[in-house]
Amino acid sequence: MLGKLTKHELIASGRMLIPMYIALICASVVGKLFIWLSSKEAFIESVPVTFSKIVNSISSLFTVLYIIMIIVVLIATTLFILIRFYKNYYTDEGYLMFTLPVSSKSLILSKLFSALIWTIVSAAIVLGSIALIMNSEETQHSFKMMWEEFMRLLERMAPEMDLSVGGLITEGILVILVAIISKYLMFYTAIAAGPSFSSKNKIVGSIIAYVVITILSQIVSLIMMYLLTNIMPNYIEALNQNAGQAVQSTVVATGIINIIFCVIFFFVTDHLMKTKTNLD
Amino acid sequence: MSNILECKNLRKQYGKLTALNGIDLSLPEGKIIGLLGPNGSGKTTLIKLVSGLLVPTAGEISIGGFAPGIESKKIISYLPERNYLNDYMTVNQLIGFFSDFYPDFDKAKAIDMLARLNIDSARKLKTLSKGTKEKVQLIMVMSRNARLYILDEPIGGVDPAARDYILETIISNYNENATVLISTHLIADIETVLDEFVFIKNGDVIMQSSVDEIREGQGKSVDALFREAFKC
């Protein structure tokens, strides 16, 4: 059932997200065209000055619009994912979803999987689009240098952290994924807690819940950070003597804290959904 | 005959407000039962508790032997009193959705019923009129081979001709062993199809009887009895 829920969720959210991504790709192609045209001397010389000026100003206007578009795509993806969660479960659509023969855990997980997939897709589309726009011999060269420098850094860091370069990259990706998951689950908890904070206006309730959860989770993570660094006894010592080791402890500690948050948010959301959902 | 629904001392409070006052209720299998009461009497609260949308403050509910949960949801086909289906979906996509989640959904039956009403299943729900939308919802719900159908105000917002169609659909599409629970305050319209009725008032069940008993025993219609019991 979880698979079917996820499938339907991907279809339902893709209906809005895919056109947005396609629009971004189209804009990148058009933008690339203008950049290419305005850089072509043969072209500039062959057309009237006014025309080449127009092309130039369009391409600089485009740069501004393009940056705005990238930001909008990233924000809209997250926002849309959260609106889907709210609309699908806490408005009239909830009558359908909460009477399906599925567990509330599956309801949460299906939304989470879909959210993760779209987040990764949106990041890939944005990166791909930037790569397309920026692609030139010059940027290729500087990117190559940056990449080599980055790999050298990893190669230096990895042994100090008792890891292979692959292990270090895997660890980094995992920590980022866990952080994204815990962020989404935190939003879900806030949405599910909305009706408990304000039965009349669930959205206001969710915003209040979000503020409360943020404050609480920051206090908790401070306490946990303190405890964790105390469990690792030579933390301060390590900071001074072995930077790699210290970075490793911090990354692992952050990861553990986020995993704990994921578990807490998941079960709290599940409990709230089961007991506090009251559709109008 | 066994009961499809059993409620024992079922209570629901919203804060200080009591919506259901510790009711006991048993509904037999194979009947069409009216859940009748004025607005705010607790009908929808009871329905939401049975369909698992709300958690009771106290008491027990058993649906075909199951507490509200995944197993009970498999055997309940529930029609809420609002437009609850995703507007952007076409009727065909809805059929796919229902077939995916309800093994007892009879696709052929749904397609047949839609065809008889000349509803184009390639159309998106949002392009259909309110009345047609309600009919589509009812067709989806009645195309399941459920053991308990719960219909909350199924004839509330439609014209008398559509009302007849809806009632006809209900009687001709449930299997004999299933129970249909219809909540409404339009009693005269549905009285002829009912086997039994439950009167609910201020969160209490005040009467449960068969329609024949009232007609033969007291020589009254349920509608007349309702007007007496709930006189303002």
Describe the structure.
By secondary structure, chain A is an all-alpha fold. Chain A has 2 domains: 1-135, no CATH class; 136-280, no CATH class. Helix content of chain A is 89%, strand content 0%. In chain A, helix 3 (49-90) runs antiparallel to helix 5 (104-134) and helix 5 (104-134) packs across helix 7 (165-197). Chain A is flat and about 70 Å long. In chain A, 26% of the residues are buried. The model of chain A has no long low-confidence stretch (mean pLDDT 88). By secondary structure, chain B is of the alpha/beta class. Chain B has a 6-stranded mixed β-sheet, with helices on both faces. The interface between A and B is medium-sized, with 22 and 24 residues.
Provide key terms for this protein.
heterodimer; A: 280 residues; mainly alpha; 2 domains; 89% helix; flat; B: 232 residues; alpha/beta; six-stranded mixed sheet; 9 helices
Write the layout of secondary structure elements.
The complex is a heterodimer of chains A (280) and B (232).
Chain A: H1 2-39, H2 41-46, H3 49-90, H4 93-97, H5 104-134, H6 137-160, H7 165-197, H8 202-231, H9 235-241, H10 243-276
Chain B: E1 3-14, E2 17-28, E3 32-36, H1 43-50, E4 58-63, H2 70-75, E5 76-79, H3 91-101, H4 107-116, H5 130-142, E6 148-152, H6 160-173, E7 179-184, H7 187-190, E8 196-201, E9 204-210, H8 211-218, H9 222-229
Helix pairs in contact in B: 5-6
What's the gist of this structure?
The complex is a heterodimer of chains A (280) and B (232). Chain A is 89% helix and 0% strand.
Between the first and last Cα atoms of chain A, what is the distance in angstroms? 26 Å
Percent of sequence in beta strands of chain A: under 5%
Portion of residues within helices of chain B: 25-40%
Largest interface: A-B, 22 and 24 residues
